[in-house]
Amino acid sequence: MQTQRPGRRQTPSRSRRQTRGRSRWQGWSQRQTRSRRQGWSQRPGPARRPWQPPRPSRTARARAALATLSALAPPRPTAKRTLDVLLGSALLLLAAPALAAAALVLTVRRHPGGVLDRSPRTGPAGAPFVLRSLRTRRLRLDTLSRLPHVVRGELSLVGPEPLAPGDERGTAAGARDWRRELKPGLTGLAQVRRRSTMPWDEADLLDQHYAEHRGTALDLAILAEAVHRPLRRAVRGLARRGQVCLSDTDHRLPNYSTAE
Length: 260
What we know:
mainly alpha, two-stranded antiparallel ribbon, 4 strands, 8% strand, rod-shaped
């Protein structure tokens, strides 16, 4: 049996030293963890972002872009509008020299009303516009001078007659709908079928008939009739001028005898 020497402190064993060191380290680590948690709890947290809806997919974004572009794109021209632009531009180029000559003659003559006749008319969808035409009826130049309105889209080659604002024919019951849907025309069914013995309401019935049966074929037929009638009248006038007029007057000399 070992005896402890007096005056000397007994050192702890190795296991006891390890246990004490481990307990000290655990206590220190617990204090550090506790202080960190307290510090984190005292720190201000990040600001919360407001709720946002989920972002759309690429396909959805592409579809939305296509829909926006289609809404901004101008409407496709119809067959009637294409006919107005092509044929109206061609007729305007062909008639430009005659129109320029007529305007020059009117300028030289110094017509009191001016070269152009300006009159307010009701256009498509009831929009008012100023109809300009030459102050002449020869060779239908007054009608041909309205071709710029056709190219701009204020008039059509074929359609009802353009009315003045406040005209009773445009405010009659049943006439507002089809008159607002159609552009007024340079010529029309009522113009080519017009005659002196026509009743006052037949022109409106013809325009309404055109509104109900309008189409490219009917437009071409009306344009052909509008060109054919003036040409036929001109040919008839030339034929009458060329005819020889025989006189019934007796041009024989006095005392004329067949025996001689």
